[in-house]
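Example 9 (inverse folding). The structure is encoded as follows.
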């Protein structure tokens, strides 16, 4: 396609966005070409919340919470941009199960606002092969590619394999969560001394991220930090 034709398509796309503005995913108001309108963006749940620097649950003064002091996780840090609550839960569901890939740009923007990690490698949370075939894409990998470029870091897309297609962790006692995840991941390359950033959309109980961190450290990783869009809040 010629540059002239590409230019025409760009102009046409801009004109269509002006004539047919996108609707806000949360409230239905006009949102220009954004996933959310400005009002909904400004009221996203958990934005700016003080969180435990290890597990990202709410913590006064952003101090390490009692649970992480009592049972130190195998990862060193977690940063979460939001709480997993309306409308974030609906947007995540639309991405995973309705294939609304356009919402990825909102999550990328939110994660890009976090501090640049002091790390050597970005690893997206891998999907089991059966789930990847069913869904057609790995949402964590869709986040990892542009964020790795933004941070100036390499991304490892196929170096970690998920061998177990585990059931959802929410609602399970901690012991069952850990047992259900044991042996879920296989690292296919040495990571000796590397500082790893793991990217995922939602952190629910932390058991999956903990098992992945154990596998990464068994392969030689020196440090593992999680970056997630949203953290499931504790029960009210």
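The amino acid assigned to each position is listed next.
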């Amino acid at each position: 396609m010629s540059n002239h034709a590409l230019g025409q398509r760009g102009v046409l796309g801009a004109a269509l966005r002006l004539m047919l503005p996108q609707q806000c995913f949360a409230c239905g108001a006009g949102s220009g070409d954004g996933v959310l309108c400005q009002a909904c963006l400004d009221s996203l749940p958990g934005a700016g919340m003080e969180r435990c620097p290890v597990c990202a649950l709410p913590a006064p003064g952003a101090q390490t919470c009692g649970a992480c002091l009592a049972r130190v996780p195998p990862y060193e840090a977690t940063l979460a941009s939001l709480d997993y609550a309306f409308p974030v839960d609906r947007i995540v569901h639309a991405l995973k199960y309705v294939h609304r890939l356009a919402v990825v740009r909102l999550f990328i923007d939110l994660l890009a606002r976090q501090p640049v990690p002091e790390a050597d490698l970005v690893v997206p949370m891998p999907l089991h092969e059966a789930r990847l075939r069913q869904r057609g894409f790995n949402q964590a990998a869709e986040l990892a590619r542009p964020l790795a470029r933004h941070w100036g870091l390499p991304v490892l897309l196929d170096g970690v394999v998920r061998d177990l297609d585990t059931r959802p962790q929410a609602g399970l006692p901690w012991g069952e969560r850990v047992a259900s995840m044991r042996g879920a991941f296989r690292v296919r390359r040495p990571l000796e001394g590397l500082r790893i950033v793991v990217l995922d959309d939602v952190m629910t109980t932390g058991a999956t991220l903990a098992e992945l961190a154990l596998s990464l450290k068994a392969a030689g990783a020196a440090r593992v930090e999680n970056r997630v869009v949203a953290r499931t809040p504790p029960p009210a």
